[in-house]
Amino acid sequence: LKVAERPARTGRNPSTGAAIEIAAKKVIKFVPAKVLTDSINK
């Protein structure tokens, strides 16, 4: 697992259609081992 940074962006409220600002945050990203990637891509 690695930590990735998700940048701030503009989103939309589906109920009202109003634009909202979504803050930047850190997220966990799964990075598979090379052995797993190779076995899946065979």
Automatic annotation (TrEMBL):
The keyword Nucleotide-binding does not apply. InterPro entries: Hist_DNA-bd, IHF-like_DNA-bd_dom_sf. One of its GO terms (molecular function) is structural constituent of chromatin. Gene3D superfamilies: IHF-like DNA-binding proteins (4.10.520.10). Signal peptide: none annotated. The keyword rRNA-binding does not apply. Keywords: DNA-binding. Belongs to the bacterial histone-like protein family. Heterodimer of an alpha and a beta chain. This is HU family DNA-binding protein. It comes from Pseudomonas syringae pv. coriandricola.
